[in-house]
What we know:
The complex is a heterodimer of chains A (about 120) and B (about 110).
Chain A: E1 4-7, E2 10-14, E3 19-25, E4 32-38, E5 44-51, E6 56-59, E7 62-67, E8 72-77, E9 86-93, E10 103-105, E11 109-114
Parallel strand pairs in A: 2-11
Antiparallel strand pairs in A: 1-3, 3-8, 4-5, 4-9, 6-7, 7-8, 9-10, 9-11
Chain B: E1 5-7, E2 10-13, E3 19-24, E4 31-38, E5 42-50, E6 53-56, E7 65-69, E8 75-79, E9 88-95, E10 103-104, E11 108-112
Parallel strand pairs in B: 2-11
Antiparallel strand pairs in B: 1-3, 3-8, 4-5, 4-9, 5-6, 7-8, 9-10, 9-11
Amino acid sequence: KQEVTQIPAALSVPEGENLVLNCSFTDSAIYNLQWFRQDPGKGLTSLLLIQSSQREQTSGRLNASLDKSSGRSTLYIAASQPGDSATYLCAVPTPGSSNTGKLIFGQGTTLQVKP
Amino acid sequence: GAGVSQSPSNKVTEKGKDVELRCDPISGHTALYWYRQSLGQGLEFLIYFQGNSAPDKSGLPSDRFSAERTGGSVSTLTIQRTQQEDSAVYLCASSPRQGSPLHFGNGTRLTVT
């Protein structure tokens, strides 16, 4: 059974710091991995999607890496800003399913960036 | 609209009543998903539609839960005889094709009193 774990559960940093959020998964036979952002009272916004054949994806100040063999992904946020404050979730498709939208989510990391 | 729209945004109902939650996906997105987010369980998959068909209903927690999709567009999630443990945020997502990122709505917060 696939399990997705995110560490830490919460993180507070001063504005301007670079930071890393961690995601681990137990079954390495994943099709892809997605990172989402969730603001309070809102839905999820897809940030980055890494295919299983890729090592990393970048979007602006965000960089996500994927190491399938070790069952790990990291989300790197450069020069953090107060507007980055949110909960960040990683998710992988259910192993053995052809339905890539049937996701298993981690519990999320709640980030607070202080001005 | 440009995004996935869900209504109502909040719903308070009495235990035992039926509720209907609506999702309007992004135009042209053939795949539609319902998820449930609760404090204790995190985000859980409920059901998947491809067009008007639901090939995967494996996440529906009981037979009190049902969903349909019409015209390859709007979907309705119905919960009959609501229980307090049904209280959660119900999120809908759509996608243009397999392997593409999911686009989520803002959810419906359901409170069963």
